[in-house]
């Protein structure tokens, strides 16, 4: 892009890890920035989120203050999070193709062999995630694919899938930019009782991946939505049951010992990991069938429309977080 003239302002932002530079008139505002992003990058305002540091934080159209001048933003670090119209259309088309009605493939009879449970082999082929799909427009999709493969091949997950006869056509990753607000971060989505399950694998800035066991617990939560939609007693009992089964049967991480002795369950107040709400999933939208956690900053726990159980769960998470911080500070003080 040519250098800006004396009466223009240059602003550089980062999108999908790459710098993008625009030139604006001196009186341009953040609304003009949104319009340029929509026109030149094909990212509609509904998909745009600007992470502006320092101070301004997350901004998205329609802006609370659309008159913020570009001159105030030029010196700040700006990360644009958002998917193009083509990217969203491509993912929607992939989901439609994957979930279209199709004739089930006949399961071939297993050939008997010594020391092999062929009935288990057949069940694992039937009760599994039949398609794994990372988002191709995000960095390192091959790494996301390996993460999804690890979840699919997790011994505890495989056992739970067989036990509850779960067969999921598509397991895919979630674009963090499409499911992040000041108050919450969507961790998982379940569409139509298990047609598609989306999981937030990446951190908000796409520069890393979240804790494996946290994502696995999110997957347990979304699998429970295959049976129960609302977060009632039936749902939570099944969710906790699946979590216990996955932990018990994950022999790679020590869920079950050689002597078939189970480790202790997680504390009761950790069971829902921060108040998860349910409903129906719509790609690119903010609702439904989804798992949300309270934002990392601050110690308050907003009640909103949450149930009493959800509020208590969020409060428990905040207590755990503070206890962990205090423990780390204590260790740091004793080491000095």
From TrEMBL:
<dbReference type="InterPro" id="IPR029071">
    <property type="entry name" value="Ubiquitin-like_domsf"/>
</dbReference>
<dbReference type="Pfam" id="PF08325">
    <property type="entry name" value="WLM"/>
</dbReference>
<feature type="region of interest" description="Disordered">
    <location>
        <begin position="316"/>
        <end position="336"/>
    </location>
</feature>
<dbReference type="GO" id="GO:0070628">
    <property type="term" value="F:proteasome binding"/>
</dbReference>
<protein>
    <submittedName>
        <fullName>WLM-domain-containing protein</fullName>
    </submittedName>
</protein>
<feature type="compositionally biased region" description="Basic and acidic residues">
    <location>
        <begin position="316"/>
        <end position="330"/>
    </location>
</feature>
<dbReference type="InterPro" id="IPR013536">
    <property type="entry name" value="WLM_dom"/>
</dbReference>
<feature type="domain" description="WLM">
    <location>
        <begin position="120"/>
        <end position="321"/>
    </location>
</feature>
<feature type="region of interest" description="Disordered">
    <location>
        <begin position="95"/>
        <end position="115"/>
    </location>
</feature>
């Amino acid at each position: 892009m040519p250098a800006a003239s004396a009466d223009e302002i240059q602003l550089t932002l980062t999108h999908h890890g790459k710098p993008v530079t625009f030139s604006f008139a001196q009186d341009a505002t953040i609304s003009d920035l949104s319009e340029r992003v929509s026109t030149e990058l094909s990212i509609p305002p509904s998909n745009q989120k600007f992470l502006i540091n320092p101070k301004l934080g997350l901004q998205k159209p329609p802006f609370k203050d659309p008159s913020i001048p570009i001159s105030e933003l030029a010196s700040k670090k700006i990360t644009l999070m958002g998917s193009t119209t083509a990217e969203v259309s491509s993912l929607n088309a992939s989901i439609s193709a994957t979930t279209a009605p199709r004739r089930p493939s006949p399961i071939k009879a297993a050939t008997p062999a010594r020391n092999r449970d062929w009935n288990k082999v057949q069940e694992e082929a039937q009760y599994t995630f039949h398609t794994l799909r990372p988002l191709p427009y995000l960095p390192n999709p091959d790494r996301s694919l390996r993460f999804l493969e690890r979840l699919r091949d997790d011994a505890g997950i495989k056992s739970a899938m067989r036990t509850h006869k779960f067969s999921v056509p598509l397991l895919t990753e979630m674009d963090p930019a499409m499911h992040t607000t000041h108050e919450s971060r969507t961790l998982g989505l379940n569409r139509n009782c298990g047609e598609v399950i989306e999981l937030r694998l990446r951190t908000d800035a796409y520069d890393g991946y979240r804790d494996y066991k946290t994502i696995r617990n999110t997957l347990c939560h979304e699998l429970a939505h295959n049976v129960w939609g609302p977060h009632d007693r039936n749902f939570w009992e099944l969710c906790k049951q699946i979590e216990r089964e996955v932990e018990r049967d994950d022999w790679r991480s020590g869920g079950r010992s050689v002597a078939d002795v189970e480790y202790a369950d997680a504390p009761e107040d950790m069971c829902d990991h921060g108040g998860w709400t349910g409903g129906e999933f719509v790609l690119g939208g903010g609702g439904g069938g989804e798992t949300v956690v309270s934002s990392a900053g601050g110690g308050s726990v907003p009640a909103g429309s949450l149930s009493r159980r959800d509020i208590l769960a969020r409060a428990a998470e905040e207590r755990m977080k503070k206890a962990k911080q205090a423990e780390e500070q204590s260790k740091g003080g004793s080491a000095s």
